[in-house]
User: Which sequence fits this backbone?
């Protein structure tokens, strides 16, 4: 098993999504016993230039019920508000040289 060393924790996989002033992180971590858990973090830039973070820890015994509730909520929103699920177009940013 390969680990990404990050904050002295065993991170197995990490991905992020940037949306405006917020970034969402999805970190799959491993316990000392080899069990996986998920840490979801919302990081938001504050007016003073710092960051405000909110975390949710999701453990293996909660995966099934969490995923069922998530899928149900997303299915409802997709049916009610399908335009929410169209990827927004952002203007291209010219790279500085």
Assistant:
């Amino acid at each position: 098993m390969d680990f990404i060393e990050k904050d002295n924790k065993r991170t197995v996989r990490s991905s992020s999504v940037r949306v405006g002033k917020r970034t969402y992180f999805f970190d799959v971590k491993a316990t000392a016993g080899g069990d996986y858990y998920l840490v979801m973090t919302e990081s938001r830039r504050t007016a003073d230039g710092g960051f405000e973070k909110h975390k949710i820890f999701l453990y293996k015994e909660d995966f099934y019920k969490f995923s069922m509730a998530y899928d149900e909520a997303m299915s409802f929103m997709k049916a009610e508000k399908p335009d929410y699920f169209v990827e927004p177009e952002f203007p291209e940013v010219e790279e500085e040289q």
The beta strands are 4-6, 9-19, 22-30, 36-45, 51-59.
